[in-house]
Amino acid sequence: xxxYLKGEITFKSPAFITxxxxxxxxxxxxxxxxxxxxxxxxxxxxYTHLIVREDAHTLFGFATQxxxxxxxxxxxxxxxxxxxxxxxxxxxxxxxxRAAVLGEQAHVLQRxxxxxxxxxxxxxxxxxxxxxxxxxxxxxxxxxxIDDNVREEALSALISLGFNRIAVQKALNQAMKxxxxxxxxxxxxxxxxxxLAG
Length: 198
Fold this sequence. Notes:
The chain has 9 helices and 5 strands; from the N terminus they run βββαββαααααααα. With 198 residues, it is an alpha+beta fold. Strands 3-2-1-4-5 form a 5-stranded antiparallel β-sheet.
C-alpha cells in the first residue's frame, strides 16, 4: 500500500520513529540498523511495509530497499513473525543474513534472541534459493569484519571508478579477510585496488 514515506522525523527511538508526511504523523517500527542510518537526519525517506491484521495495521520502515525486501522474505518463513524479523535486522546486516543463509550457518542466525535451531534451519531452507537468485555470485557475500559504513563507502568509490560491482565486492571481502584491522576507507580502497589490478 505504501512504498515509502518521505518527511520530517518528529520522534526517533531505536524501535520506532514518528515520520510526518503531508501533515500526518506515521508511527513506523524500525530495526536498529535503520535507526543508526537516520541518526543524524531530520528528514528521511523510509521504505515501508504495511502488515494488516484484524486488530491492527502496523507499519514497518527501513533505510534501504534491500532491508525491506529481506524483511518481507523473512516474514514469509514459517515461525518468523514481523517482530522476529525486525529483531533479526536489528542484530545483523542484510549481507550478514544473506551470508548466513547461503552458507547454511544456522549457528549464526541462532545468535539472534528468540531464534532457535528449528527456526534458523527453516529460514535457511525457505530463503537459500531465493537469496541465491538475488546474489549473482554467492562468493561475493561474506560476513563483514569491519564497519559496514566503511565498506559501503569503499564499494561506492570503486564502482564510481568504473569497476564491476561483483569484482569490487570480491576484492573488498578479500582485503577485509586478509586485513581484519582495517578501519579507514582509503586503506581498504588501496588494498582492494591491488586485488583488482592483479
